[in-house]
UniProtKB/TrEMBL annotation:
It holds the Pfam family Methyltransf_23. Pathway: Cofactor biosynthesis; ubiquinone biosynthesis. One of its GO terms (molecular function) is 3-demethylubiquinol 3-O-methyltransferase activity. The gene is ubiG. O-methyltransferase that catalyzes the 2 O-methylation steps in the ubiquinone biosynthetic pathway. This is Ubiquinone biosynthesis O-methyltransferase. Its EC number is 2.1.1.222, 2.1.1.64. The keyword Nucleus does not apply. HAMAP family: UbiG. GO terms for biological process: methylation.
Length: 245
């Protein structure tokens, strides 16, 4: 797909406003982003294993991303950026909501972490490329999924690794993530729009159209005994790697 046909605009203003309104308590593990705090360790476990496998690293290493640049797209207030920085990466985070970026900068500064943050469209970033590109629970919120994936691909360095997670569009996800979780107050109302969820097959096709190959996805499921965990069950949420074809 030629660059001239790619729209640089992927942000939905109403989505940016919704998440920007949550910025003040993003880092509160009992606040409106409590579910993200539970989800983050699961994502990190997947990312760490994917990083070690992709670059053949030592699974015992404390800084497997040392010397590598990482980009987290839709970074919110930096919940994933900060652990990526602690794993050794030089991290850049971009988010649609300026309020989130303000909270991210303040939290990183207080933690003594050197993270670059940018508010606005991904296309507005300088033409840097990154060894690791992540987009966690973002693609279901963008205006043009094909353009968004193409922009992610443009930011991925040769030999780099991409990690994407998103809810699956199934009857179960509609019942539990939209009608259940929002009604019970587990996530803020208006967070999820089921019709925008992306199935694994659809994500694979979007990635292929951008010249990327998706790895085998893993589900993120809920167990009453263990909480959120990686699983073979893709019906609620899943996470996958992608590489250049």
């Amino acid at each position: 797909m030629a660059n001239a046909t790619i729209s640089p605009v992927t942000i939905r203003p109403e989505e940016a406003a919704h998440f920007g309104a949550l910025a003040a308590d993003w880092w509160d593990p009992k606040g409106s982003s409590a579910m993200l705090h539970r989800l983050n360790p699961v994502r990190l476990g997947f990312i760490r294993e994917a990083v070690d496998m992709h670059w053949g690293g030592d699974i015992r290493a404390r800084h497997p991303l040392a010397g590598k640049a990482a980009l987290d797209v839709g970074c919110g207030a930096g919940l994933l950026c900060e652990p990526l920085a602690r794993l050794g990466a030089q991290v850049t985070g971009v988010d649609a909501a300026a309020e989130n970026i303000g909270a991210a900068r303040a939290h990183a500064r207080a933690a003594g972490l050197d993270i670059t943050y940018h508010a606005g469209e991904l296309a507005e970033l300088q033409a840097d490329r990154f060894d690791l590109v992540t987009a966690m629970e973002v693609i279901e919120h963008v205006a043009d999924k094909g353009a968004f994936v193409h922009q992610l691909q443009e930011r991925l360095a040769d030999g780099g690794l991409m990690v994407i997670s998103t809810p699956n569009r199934t009857t179960r996800s509609k019942l539990l993530l939209v009608e259940g979780a929002e009604r019970l107050g587990m996530v803020p109302r208006g967070t999820h729009h089921w019709e925008d969820f992306v199935t694994p097959d659809e994500l694979s096709e979007l990635l292929a159209a951008a010249g990327l190959v998706m790895g085998a996805p893993q589900g993120i499921a809920f167990s009453p005994m263990r909480g959120l965990e990686l699983s073979g069950d893709l019906s609620l949420n899943y996470i996958a790697t992608a590489r250049r074809a």
